[in-house]
Design goal:
alpha+beta, 14 helices, 43% helix
């Protein structure tokens, strides 16, 4: 991590974040929990209190601050004065509730087109209003609005987007608990997940988001460099259904999210489907993509985007699992199927010198196999040329008599040249470009495996060296 950045990984499970993200859509229920100071139950061992409700009708923000309860000596759940975990949960797009602020301004303006979340807009509000979460509307300079302002009963105030408001809220929560052991983290689904990721990076806190669009481009250039370097990979988990256009990419697949992108299943079929949608003329591509988005996200047939068990399931430890029942999920950053607990900041992978040596030996064997394949591919042209020479010799001996008495040796040469794929230093009957691409890909794989093998050997050697140093010191 760069100097000055210290991010504490939360012990809240993926499933708990999932349930808090679900709760964020139930505005009235959470308001009642806060009013009557009753905990929101996630499981028998997880109860959460609503510390704050932050909503803004002008921008569409819907955010809730939760603190994890503790169990008292008499077995009842109570609100902790110094909670171990505080989670800021953001609701996602709610078209039915707020189609303009959620659907057009936030999803369209900020997420899709990359409008600056910090851009300010003016609103008209009563001069003595205590609650400014709902004003008289955005100031557009109309005669009627100016007439209101001249009465002296109204004034202008500025607001930024709900994404920036989410960032400000997390900053204030972090400030409130500064100097304590409380761990601050964020969560949310869809647009709410985007707000969770954006505010997590800006405030150096942990986050778990579900089917969230990428918001890398909304950060400043320096922060984008940090994100792209992988600095936040252990601290932000973007859990995505690869079939979902919102989470995986509206058009092309996202390069990355703010942290580690975890696809809930192997994305190969999803990527093939995307390739099919992007095939043909531009008008056809637009039509196919719009149809897919409308069917899966709006009509939910099939549902690829919803925050439900159709898209997200968890193992007994509360860690994200593959909905198809497979043991592995997909780490997009590494491009590999892995146990969910091995991705990002979850369970530790235990490595011993013996295991490292065995892995290095396996990598070495794979490297040797690839070297053999590369050598055979490079020598394939020799066998090809030998077969062409044999073919020429056979037909040269047959022309000028018998069935081929009207043909000459040049006819054999011309025929071979006509049906050859190319003619460079002799007729060639295979795709030389494809051959070279294959050889290059083998070399790239060999180089990568050699590097991995080197790292594994180094790990084993350093383990043994440190162990010996410790042994000598203890003596």
């Amino acid at each position: 991590m760069p100097k000055g950045k210290e991010i504490t990984v939360s012990n809240v499970t993926d499933k708990e974040y999932y349930r808090l993200s679900q709760a964020a859509y139930h505005y009235k229920m959470l308001a009642l929990h806060m009013k009557y100071k009753t905990p929101y139950k996630i499981s028998k061992t997880s109860y959460w209190y609503v510390e704050k409700v932050k909503q803004d009708s002008d921008t569409g923000l819907d955010a809730f601050v939760f603190s994890k309860g503790i169990k008292s000596k008499n077995g009842k759940w109570i609100k902790s004065k110094s909670p171990e975990n505080v989670v800021v949960a953001f609701a996602g797009t709610d078209i039915a509730k707020d189609p303009i602020n959620d659907g057009v301004k936030a999803d369209g303006g900020n997420i899709v087109f990359g409008s600056d979340p910090k851009k300010e807009a003016h609103y008209i509000v009563e001069k003595d209003a205590k609650d400014t979460s709902k004003t008289l509307g955005k100031y557009n300079g109309t005669p009627s609005q100016d007439a209101k302002l001249t009465t002296g009963k109204y004034k202008l105030m500025t607001k930024t987007s709900q994404i920036d408001q989410a960032d400000q809220l997390v900053r204030s929560v972090k400030k409130k608990y500064a100097g304590t052991s409380t761990i601050i983290s964020t969560t949310g689904h869809s647009l709410g997940g985007a707000e969770a990721e954006y505010s997590a990076v800006n405030n150096d806190v942990y986050a778990v988001a579900f089917n969230s669009p990428s918001v890398v481009k909304l950060h400043d250039e320096e922060t984008q460099k940090e994100i792209n370097s992988g600095i936040y990979d252990p601290y932000i988990r973007s859990i995505i259904n690869p079939d979902d256009m919102v989470g995986a990419g509206y058009w092309n697949e996202y390069d990355r999210h703010n942290g580690t992108t975890i696809y809930t299943k192997n994305p190969s079929l999803s990527q093939f489907s995307r390739k099919q949608r992007l095939d043909g003329k531009l008008s056809e591509q637009i039509g196919k993509n719009l149809a897919y988005f409308f069917t899966t996200v709006i009509l939910r047939n099939p549902d690829t985007h919803g925050l439900n068990e159709a898209n997200f399931v968890f193992d007994r430890n509360g860690t994200i699992a593959n909905p198809n029942g497979d043991e592995l999920v997909f780490d997009k950053n590494l491009g590999a199927l892995l146990p969910a607990g091995a991705i990002g900041s979850a369970d530790t992978i235990k490595v011993t010198p013996t295991n490292a040596k065995k892995l290095a030996e396996k990598v070495q064997a794979m490297t040797e196999d690839l070297r053999t394949m590369k050598k055979e591919a490079q020598n394939a042209y020799q066998e090809h040329d030998e077969k062409i020479a044999e073919l020429k010799t056979e037909f040269y001996g047959q022309v000028g008599h018998g069935l081929y008495d009207q043909l000459q040796a040049q006819d054999v040469t011309n025929t071979i040249e006509d049906i050859a794929l190319s003619y460079d230093k002799g007729p060639i009957f295979y795709d030389t470009q494809a051959e070279q691409a294959f050889i290059d890909s083998l070399q790239a794989a060999i180089t990568d495996l050699e590097e991995i093998g080197g790292f594994l050997h180094k790990i084993a050697d350093e383990f043994q060296e440190k162990d010996q140093m410790l042994a000598n010191w203890l003596r």
